[in-house]
């Protein structure tokens, strides 16, 4: 015969046991949350650590990259800003990135409108093709571009880099702007059309102001995708036109000095500044 021993215990002990069993669940959830937080924090720290180490290595007094650095100096930043090869590669990459931002943002926004608002029979195929450059390995894409650009004498040219980086940046614009359009209430556009505005007026007066934060974020992603790109640039660069990524690869092979760390620190600062500015503008727009 089975005897429920809990019923034979005094009421006080039985109640205490039930309270302890009930208390295990909140403690278990708290332990799981703490464990998950420690795991996520460790992963983020591991990802950020190389970027943080760049800064002290760029201040080293030695002629080679070393950590921990021996002494602190701004010498390598002065070398970076005064070296004509570094400046030529930097300004070339900046010009390409600005042009890529404009072209990729316009083309990507138009593609997003066709995907979200259009009634096209091949809309799914367009969506897949627009994000295809993110799926294809950049090495394969770089080799293909070199085989196409070399006979046309586009390697190392502004137009060649613009075409290549625009193709690589469009997926970031399409993904970001598509998300903004999907959150926009279609009845706002219908209201604009019912008030007598045509499609073009409705876009500029109703749609564009509402998706402007998304377009701003997309343009920043496009700029960074072009400016930081190194794999494809390695294939389509030459002596006439060389991106900053290609310049870094060359110095890593033949002239490994802390000036590479100084250039990297400058790029990290510029990227953080762009992302922070975009976040502030987006937050201000959302608060209005």
From TrEMBL:
Annotated keywords: Cell inner membrane, Cell membrane, Membrane, Transmembrane, Transmembrane helix, Transport
Domain ABC transmembrane type-1: 90-278
Membrane topology: Multi-pass membrane protein
GO biological process: transmembrane transport
TM region(s), chain numbering: 30-55, 92-116, 128-149, 155-181, 202-225, 256-275
InterPro entries: MetI-like, MetI-like_sf
UniProt-annotated location(s): Cell inner membrane; Cell membrane
A GO CC annotation given for this chain: plasma membrane
Pfam families: BPD_transp_1 (PF00528)
Claim: rRNA processing is one of the keywords in the record: no
PANTHER family: INNER MEMBRANE ABC TRANSPORTER PERMEASE PROTEIN YDCV
Family recorded in the similarity comment: Belongs to the binding-protein-dependent transport system permease family.
Name of this chain's protein: Mannopine transport system permease protein
Organism: Rhizobium lusitanum
């Amino acid at each position: 015969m089975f005897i429920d021993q809990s019923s034979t215990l005094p009421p006080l002990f039985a109640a205490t046991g039930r309270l302890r069993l009930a208390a295990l669940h909140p403690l278990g959830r708290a332990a799981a949350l703490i464990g998950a937080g420690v795991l996520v924090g460790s992963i983020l720290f591991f990802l950020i650590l190389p970027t943080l180490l760049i800064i002290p290595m760029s201040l080293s007094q030695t002629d080679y990259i070393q950590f921990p650095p021996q002494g602190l100096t701004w010498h390598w930043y002065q070398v970076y800003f005064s070296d004509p090869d570094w400046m030529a590669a930097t300004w070339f990459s900046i010009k390409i990135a600005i042009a890529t931002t404009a072209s990729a943002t316009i083309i990507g926004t138009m593609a997003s409108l066709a995907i979200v608002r259009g009634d096209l029979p091949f809309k799914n195929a367009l969506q897949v093709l627009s994000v295809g450059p993110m799926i294809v390995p950049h090495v394969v894409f770089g080799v293909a571009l070199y085989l196409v650009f070399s006979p046309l004498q586009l390697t190392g040219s502004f137009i060649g880099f613009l075409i290549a980086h625009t193709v690589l940046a469009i997926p970031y614009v399409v993904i970001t702007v598509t998300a903004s359009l999907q959150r926009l209430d279609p009845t706002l556009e219908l209201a604009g059309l019912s008030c007598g505005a045509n499609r073009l007026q409705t876009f500029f007066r109703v749609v564009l102001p509402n998706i402007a934060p998304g377009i701003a974020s997309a343009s920043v992603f496009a700029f960074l995708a072009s400016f930081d790109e190194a794999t494809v640039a390695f294939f389509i660069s030459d002596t006439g036109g060389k991106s900053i990524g290609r310049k870094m690869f060359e110095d890593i092979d033949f002239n490994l000095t802390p000036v590479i760390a100084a250039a990297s620190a400058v790029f990290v600062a510029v990227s953080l500044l762009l992302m922070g500015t975009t976040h502030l503008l987006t937050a201000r727009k959302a608060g209005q």
